[in-house]
Amino acid sequence: MSTHVELAAHPMCQLARVLTWGALGLLTYGVVNWVAAQPVFALHNLDVKTPMAHVTKAQIQLVAERRVRGTFFTVDLERVRSSLEKLPWVREARVERRWPDTLVVTLVEHVPLARWNDNALVSEAGEVFVAALNQPLPRLSGPAESSAEVVTAFHSYQAALAPLGMTIDELRLSPRRAWRIRLDNGMQIALGREQAKVRLARFVAFYPRVFTPPAAVNSVTESSVSEMPLEPAPKVHPVTVDLRYPDGFAVRMPRGVSPFKSSTT
Question: What predicted TM-score, i.e. pTM, was given to this entire model?
Answer without folding.
Answer: 0.74
